[in-house]
Every structure is written in structure tokens, then in C-alpha cells.
Specification:
Layout lengths: L7 H20 L5 H8 L3 H29 L1 H21 L3 H15 L1 H13 L2 H32 L3 H21 L14 H12 L2 H22 L1 H8 L8 H21 L5 H25 L10 H24 L4 H27 L3 H26 L18
Helix pairs in contact: 1-6, 1-7, 1-8, 3-4, 3-5, 3-6, 3-15, 4-5, 4-6, 4-8, 6-15, 7-12, 7-14, 10-14, 10-15, 10-16, 12-14, 13-14, 13-16, 14-15
GO molecular function: sodium:proton antiporter activity; xenobiotic transmembrane transporter activity
Pfam families: MFS_1
Membrane topology: Multi-pass membrane protein
């Protein structure tokens, strides 16, 4: 099957499902935190490390998924990564102690990023301009469903079985995705376009990309913008059960509206691709995130105890804004390095995931005991993202004809 012959809807479903690994690996086990902690005698802080260990491994390996796919092809890397994820999930289900569970969580992290990272490169292998933005938005719509349904599925499973059954579910999920990829996913990077890879070339390539100020600014803007939302995702056990007073089967109160906002934002981005300039679309996304910050701070300053549904409304707006911004910034990054799209996707993911790991392992445990602290910390991340975005725009603003014109990079020029 030629890469351009696969129907767009099928490609979006496949890449979206592959990107779900990360969210499923994090969110499905949230309802089981108390049960796992009780069985292994682990504190809430220790249980939080099941997320941070996973994310650190995810971030480190993300540096290699893209370059390897640039060298050997996209399809092989995805199939191997999904197979390793399935085996790691078996290990988690059979783990006899917290230490073994953490070890297999690391192995999950090493493999789970392959779909999201390589999938971004596949989009640009197949499409350009508004079509690429539209497909990226469709993938986000599929991907966005995962955080909404994962904790619900985890809660349902926990209602009829023990916590190990959650990891057996992940094994079945990975097996289904592996089969679908093997049957329907074509190779999108011809051998003639592949780039040899070794440790030295990866280091040199990353150094070259990090020396590009536009890449750094775009990656940081996207990372901090998403971190404002991820802070609440990483803090979900404390936010949902401790602060909102809900139980293990009520995570849907947080995740369904929030991720619905992300899916709606991705749908809006796809509909507006080619009609509204990417530059303006990114501005709209940051404006919506700013509105979410104001509402979140205002609400938590006004009440002593947050309650649903009002405590969730700012999360919905924030997710909507993040989904508007993300496709624009990601495509701009990939277009900076047309011959190293896999490597660029990897380094972008590494920067974002490193920040997310710090949020999950360091920031969240410190602030998740207070709704107001969560709101202020999320606001800080959003403000930092916006300021970095403004700095990027100033660097790429057109200058006088005496110095030559400089256009905004990639899709932001539309």
C-alpha cells in the first residue's frame, strides 16, 4: 500500500490510537493508586513516582525514536515499540513489589512514545500545509479521547477485578494496535530518503537543532502551554479524590469535560486550517488559555472548597486553547528541518516530556494539596508559554527592506 493511498480517516485513527499509549499508561491506573499503594505499602508520594519514572524514561527514549525512524523507516520502529510496550505491560501486571512495578513502568516509558513521535513525522511525510495541519488536528481528536476514557476504564476494571487487570487491559490494547499497524500502516519514508544514524550523528543533530533559537522557542512555548494542563492531569488522584471529594469511579467528572475541550479544540483547528492563518489560530489559542487562567484563579480565590462542575470549567477552556496551539507549533518545528523530521519530533517530545516529568515528580506533589496552589502554578506555566511565544514572534517579525525581509517560519507564515 502506497503511503498516499491510505484513507485519511484510517491514517488519523491509526496514528491517534498509537499516540494513545502515553495517555493510557498514565491515566488508566489513577483509580488504582490507593489499591496499589495499600498492597505494596507505598505512600502517595511513592505512588506519584510511577508517573515520574515512566515520564523520565519516555523523555530519554524520545531522543532516539525519531532518528532511528529516519534511518530504518517509520513502520518497523512502530511495530517494535508497540511489541515492547505489550511485554512491559505484562511485567507490570505480574510485578511482585513496587520496585518491580517501577522497573516495568520504565520499560513502558521507553517504548510508549514511539507512536506519538514517529506519527508526527508520518504526517509530514504524507502531507503539506493546511492538509498536514488538518490531519494533525484529527489525530489530536483521537488522541484526546484517551485521557477522558482511560481513568473511566480503569475505574470500571477496578470495580470487577484487581489492579493487575488494568495492565492486562493495556496488553490487549497494545496487541490490537500492533495488528492494525501491521495490516494497514504503509511505510511512508522511502529508502532513498533515509538518513544513516549513530550515537554521534544523534548528538550532533540535537546540538544543531538546539542551536536554532526558533526551534527552542517553539518547543518551549508548546511545552509550557501543555504543562499548565498536564499539572492537573498528573495531580488527578489528589485533585479528584482529595480536593473535589469524589471517588475512584468518578474521575469522569474531571477527564470527560477536559478532554472534550481538547477534542473540540482539535476539531476547530482542523476546520479552520487553510481558512484562518496559522499565526492567527495560535493567537486565538493563547487567548483562550489566558481566559482559562483568569477564570481558574478567580474561582479558587472566591471559594474555600472547589466543587464540580465549576472547578472543571477552566480546565475545559485550557484544553481547548492547547489544542488550537499545538498543531501550529508542531508543524512549524517539523518544517524547520525537512530532512530530519523524525529527529525534530524526538527532540521536541524530549523537551516537553522532561518538563512533564518534573511537573509529575516534583511540582505536583508540592502543590496538589491546595486548589489555589494548583491554579497559581498552572497560571505561571501559561504565562511563561505566552511570553516565549511573543519572543518568537518578535524574532521573526518582518524587518525593514534595507535589511531584507524575514517571514515567520513554517506554517506560521500563512
Amino acid at each position: 500500500m502506497a503511503p498516499h493511498s491510505i484513507p485519511r480517516w484510517r491514517l488519523a485513527l491509526l496514528l491517534g490510537a498509537l499516540a494513545m499509549f502515553g495517555a493510557f499508561s498514565i491515566d488508566t491506573i489513577f483509580p488504582a493508586f490507593p489499591a496499589i499503594g495499600e498492597e505494596f505499602g507505598a505512600s502517595k508520594l511513592a505512588m506519584q513516582q510511577t508517573i515520574s519514572f515512566y515520564l523520565v524514561a519516555y523523555a530519554l527514549m524520545s531522543l532516539f525514536h525519531g532518528p532511528i525512524s529516519d534511518a530504518v523507516g517509520r513502520r518497523k520502529v512502530i511495530l517494535v515499540g508497540v511489541a515492547i510496550f505489550a511485554l512491559a505491560s505484562v511485567g507490570c501486571a505480574l510485578a511482585p513489589s513496587l520496585e518491580w512495578l517501577l522497573a516495568f513502568r520504565v520499560l513502558q516509558g521507553l517504548s510508549a512514545g514511539v507512536g506519538l513521535i514517529v506519527g508526527r513525522a508520518i504526517v509530514r511525510d504524507c502531507l503539506d500545509g493546511p492538509e498536514a495541519q488538518r490531519l494533525m488536528s484529527h489525530i489530536m481528536m483521537v488522541f484526546g479521547i484517551a485521557p477522558a476514557i482511560a481513568p473511566i476504564i480503569g475505574g470500571w476494571i477496578l470495580g470487577v477485578a484487581d489492579w493487575q487487570a488494568i495492565f492486562w487491559f493495556l496488553v490487549l490494547f497494545a496487541a490490537a494496535i500492533w495488528v492494525a499497524t501491521a495490516v494497514w500502516m504503509p511505510e511512508t519514508l522511502p529508502p532513498a530518503e533515509r538518513t544513516p544514524v549513530n550515537a554521534r550523528s544523534i548528538v550532533q543533530g540535537n546540538r544543531m537543532m538546539l542551536s536554532n533559537p526558533d526551534f527552542v522557542l517553539l518547543a518551549l512555548a508548546g511545552s509550557f502551554n501543555f504543562a499548565a494542563l498536564f499539572l492537573y492531569i498528573a495531580s488527578a488522584p489528589a485533585f479528584v479524590m482529595d480536593l473535589l471529594g469524589l471517588n475512584e469511579q468518578q474521575f469522569a467528572w474531571f477527564f470527560v469535560p477536559t478532554i472534550s475541550g481538547m477534542v473540540l479544540g482539535a476539531f476547530t483547528s482542523g476546520r479552520l486550517a487553510g481558512r484562518v492563518g496559522a499565526h492567527r489560530l495560535a493567537w486565538l489559542g493563547f487567548a483562550v488559555c489566558g481566559l482559562a487562567v483568569v477564570l481558574n484563579l478567580g474561582y479558587n480565590l472566591a471559594v474555600e472548597v472547589p466543587r464540580v462542575p465549576w472547578a472543571i470549567v477552566p480546565m475545559v477552556l485550557n484544553a481547548y486553547g492547547v489544542a488550537l496551539v499545538f498543531p501550529v507549533l508542531t508543524l512549524a518545528i517539523l518544517d524547520l528541518f525537512p530532512t530530519r523530521r523524525g529527529a525534530a519530533s524526538s527532540l521536541q517530545a524530549f523537551i516537553s516530556l522532561s518538563l512533564n516529568a518534573a511537573v509529575a515528580g516534583i511540582v505536583s506533589p508540592w502543590v496538589s494539596g491546595s486548589a489555589l496552589l494548583l491554579a497559581f502554578t498552572g497560571a505561571l506555566f501559561s504565562v511563561m508559554a505566552f511570553l516565549i511565544w511573543v519572543l518568537y514572534l518578535r524574532r521573526n517579525a518582518p524587518v525593514g527592506p534595507q535589511r531584507g525581509e524575514r517571514a515567520v517560519v513554517g506554517p506560521l507564515s500563512s
